[in-house]
């Protein structure tokens, strides 16, 4: 059976979402349904039409809208939303009703008529749903409210019944506002990339929709224009603002051969870009898809709330019934008074604030992270990150730049440093090793004439040899020359360079050494500050896991202020170190490049990949991807996650605490419908405002 994905308008209530999903499942031709409340979309396996879906959501005005990668969610002004119009109209009748109650009395037919009008205007749709649910023994928020309002009217509490209708409308409006506000971060991402591009065909420039652009088409991007598709620069150079993708505040220089991303801004020069990905495969499209999927994944706190709410609502109904009937039956209480208290118990037990306490915080946090260039792939990873005590770092490309540079060239005989570089470069021209690239770059930088080598031969794990100027030269590590020359060749100079974090390469013949070339992977300028910030955030252990030698590892660890270092590690050794850290600290993160060290990243409580903006593997395999190729966003991510965990706990406390206080008022008989609904609306308001604080959580 084929699957189809539909975007939805008006999906703002978690209980309504469950009912909507159930209605779809009841359609005979549907095999399976996956509803994503956070992203407001549904995936249906089986035969179904948009009309079927609209009918399934008609009970709460949930409608299908066009599904594409663009923002189809149009913001509707407050006063144009039908529910808000009826809520305000209900308030007007409520106020007039109170005015007449003072002049004509609370039991006047005119007063009762005004309150009844307020009830019907504001609660008509709720009553229809409530009665339908009641007939099916479905006890959700609208069912509880319907019973409470109907009961209040029966015992003559018209004014309070009307007030409950209005304040419940306020509560629903707050819930809708909070969910829509939380979704805005993702909706704004959908509008980042333009819909059309200027394509170069021969000498002609043609405007074409992105859906019609194919790989290898050439786009012309002028200064001040956004890039419509992912591609590679084939002509020109410029500065690109990549903040929308990577969160980087400074523009990045791009020239021929550089990769560029859809949705980024060309700030300076005119460039030509060859398209490398279709519109559905661009980095921004993948980010949107993965973030939306992340919003569907329930965090542990949300699972707890959902499970709790399953038993909470029936329990409240039982308590309300007992409050209404026990005192009159066993203690000669006044039926009218205790039935009223039972109805108030129903209202205060409405789980509105509780059910949105976790999802609104998680959706807001994940959306905020995406805007800052951090992809968090689910609420569970957000919570795990918020509780981290230890972080392990890969060295190359994470704490360091990943591109080694020549730091020293030392002559050991009468040959000059330039001649040693030329000989080394002639041999290394045949090698793909990063150290070979560093030596070649150094020679080009010094503008030295390249020598020609022949008879190149690689010596696995040790180095290489070749014929240069009719003489066989070797280049490699100290172990190679120890084998060639014999005896120990570990001089004080070699030891000194190694203890400073250099990898030492020796050049010579099979009888003598002629020079030393020291190469080091340069530490990122931001790494030390990042480690310092992590310690301030309460991370107890920061450890570097590297395959490099112990001396190099310790040098970099001391330079950055890391807690410890483990060196000479193979990938399987790193996995064991992560397992050991988990035993000691509980939750551990591993930060790497998303390609290497996959076992360690998978084993860690949270796998954090660097440079997700340029690496598909990072986007697919990591729990969290830092879209920019640096660590600057790591402290922000930890801070945001910790704040999210705190806010989720606070929200659950607010939601349950206010209701518990209100329920305790039943004992002295002080609980009223007014207090009940204000406690419910108050809890919802607190939860919404508290969660919205995550929108403003930025850099440390």
Distance between the first and last residues' Cα: 49 Å
3D shape: elongated
The average pLDDT score comes to 85
Structural class: alpha+beta
Tell me what portion of residues adopts beta-strand conformation: 15-25%
Round the Cα radius of gyration to an integer and report it. Answer: 33 Å
Low-confidence sequence ranges: none
Mind summarizing the main beta sheet?
Answer: 7 strands, mixed
Helix content range: 40-55%
How many strand segments? 26
Trace the largest sheet across and list its strands: 14-26-25-24-15-22-23
Number of helices: 25
Protein architecture, described:
- The protein is 50% helix and 20% strand.
- With 700 residues, the protein is of the alpha+beta class.
- Helix 3 packs antiparallel against helix 6 and helix 9 runs antiparallel to helix 10.
- Strand 20 and strand 21 form a beta hairpin.
- The two termini are 49 Å apart.
- The mean pLDDT is 85.
- It is built from 25 helices and 26 strands.
- The strands form 6 sheets. The chain has a 7-stranded mixed β-sheet, sandwiched between helices. A 6-stranded antiparallel β-sheet has the order 16-21-20-19-18-17, with helices on both faces. The protein has a 4-stranded antiparallel β-sheet with strand order 2-3-1-4.
Helices and strands, with pairings:
Layout lengths: L2 E7 L4 H12 L4 E7 L4 E6 L3 H7 L6 E3 L16 H23 L4 H27 L5 H14 L3 H33 L5 E6 L2 E6 L8 E4 L9 E5 L2 E4 L1 H4 L5 E3 L4 E2 L4 E2 L4 E5 L7 H14 L3 H32 L3 H14 L3 H6 L1 H13 L2 E3 L2 H8 L3 E5 H5 E12 L5 H12 L5 H12 L7 E7 L3 E6 L2 E6 L1 H8 L6 H8 L3 E6 L4 E11 L3 H10 L4 E5 L4 H11 L3 E3 L4 H15 L2 E5 L5 H6 L2 E5 L5 H6 L2 E3 L6 H32 L8 H20 L8
Parallel strand pairs: 15-22, 15-24, 22-23, 24-25, 25-26
Antiparallel strand pairs: 1-3, 1-4, 2-3, 5-6, 7-13, 8-11, 8-13, 9-10, 9-12, 14-26, 16-21, 17-18, 18-19, 19-20, 20-21
Helix pairs in contact: 3-4, 3-6, 4-5, 4-6, 5-6, 5-10, 6-12, 6-25, 8-12, 9-10, 10-25, 12-24, 13-24, 15-16, 24-25
